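User: As part of a screening pipeline, I want to sanity-check one entry by hand. Below is the sequence and the SMILES for NAP. Please return the complex as C-alpha cells so I can compare it with the automated output.
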Amino acid sequence: MRAVGITRFGGPEVLEIVELPPPLPGPGQVLIRVAAATVNPADTVLRAGRHGPPAAGMAAPYVPGMELAGVIDAVGPGAPWQAGDRVMAIVSPSAPGGGAQAELVVVPGDSVARVPAGISLTAAATLPMNGLTARLALDLLALRPGQTLAVTGAAGAVGGYAIQLAVHAGLDVIADAAPADAELVRGLGAAVVVQRGPQLAAAIREAVPAGVDALLDAAVMGQPVLPAIRDGGQVAAVRPFSGQAKRSITVTLVLVGDYLHAGDKLAGLAGLVAAGVLTLRVAAELPARQAAQAHRLLAAGGVRGRIVLTF
Ligand SMILES: NC(=O)c1ccc[n+]([C@@H]2O[C@H](COP(=O)([O-])OP(=O)(O)OC[C@H]3O[C@@H](n4cnc5c(N)ncnc54)[C@H](OP(=O)(O)O)[C@@H]3O)[C@@H](O)[C@H]2O)c1
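Assistant: Here is the complex for your manual check:
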C-alpha cells in the first residue's frame, strides 16, 4: 500500500510516496481505507526532524499525519465497528504503524468516530486532531458560562474550533485576526475581534479592562500575551510556553495525545458538526503524491482551513 514517507529529514522535497506492507488490525483495532488525511504544522515538525524519529527505535520511512477519514476495511477482535462504516480518526505518527497519510491505517477502535451523514470524508478529515485539541484546551480551562476567553491564531484550525466550542459553551470570546481575517473570525462567533500582532495584549485589555479569564495561545505567541490575562487567570499553550507567568496566572500545556483514545469526545464533536455548531474548513485537496506542495503551502502561511491529501 502507498503512504507518504520520510526516509531522511529535511525540507518538503524529502516527502515521497513509499510502498509499505498492508497492516492488519489487532484486538480492539480497526483497519481504515483512507480517503483523506490532513496536513498539519506537526507534520512539518516531523519532516524537518526537529524531534528526531516519532518514537524511540522507530525505523524510517516515517509516515506523518494525525487525522484521517475513510471507510473501515476490517475489524480486529472486540472492536465495536463494522466493515463499511464511514469514520474519522485521530492518529499518532509514533504508533507502530505510523501516521495517517497512508492508503490503509490501523488505529485503536476508541480513536474513531462515525462521520455524520451528508459530510464528505474530505471535510471530516479536518476535525479529529484539531477539534480534539480545542476540546481538550477548553476541558482543561474548565471555564464557566459568562467567563471570557481570548484566542490567538483565531483564523487557524485550533483557534477556529476553540472559538466555536467556547461560544457554544456560553463563554464570551475575544479573538485576534489580521484585517483580512476579521470577518472570518467574527463569523466563527468571536464577540470582539482585535488586530493580531505585538500590540495584542494591550488591545485585549482595552476591550476587557479587567483582563480575560483565560487565553488559548494557538498562535504560540508566548510571554507577550500575559498582560491580557487577569490576575489568577489561565493560559492554555499548544507548544511549550516561553516565559514565566506572574500574578498567579497558571499555564497549562495542551497535549492532544491525551485524547488519542477519546473517541467519545470525537463523536461529540461530530455531533456538533451535524448540528451546525462546528464548521469544517478545507483549504485545498491534493493527491497524496503532492504532499511536498502541501507542506510548502502550509509553510508560506495564510492558509485558511486545512490542506487535505487524498488517497
Ligand atoms: N499541543 C498539541 O497537542 C497541539 C495540537 C494541535 C496543534 N498544535 C499546535 O497549535 C498551533 C496551531 O495549530 P493550527 O493547526 O491551528 O495552525 P494553523 O491552522 O496554521 O493556524 C495558526 C494561525 O495562527 C496565525 N499566526 C501565526 N503566527 C501568528 C502571530 N505571531 N500572531 C498572530 N497569529 C499568528 C496563523 O496565521 P498565518 O497563516 O497568517 O501565519 C494562523 O491563522 C501549531 O503550533 C500546532 O503545532 C498543538
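Points to compare against the pipeline: Residues 52 and 189 are 39 Å apart (CA to CA). The domain at 2-126+280-310 is CATH 3.90.180.10 (Quinone Oxidoreductase; Chain A, domain 1).
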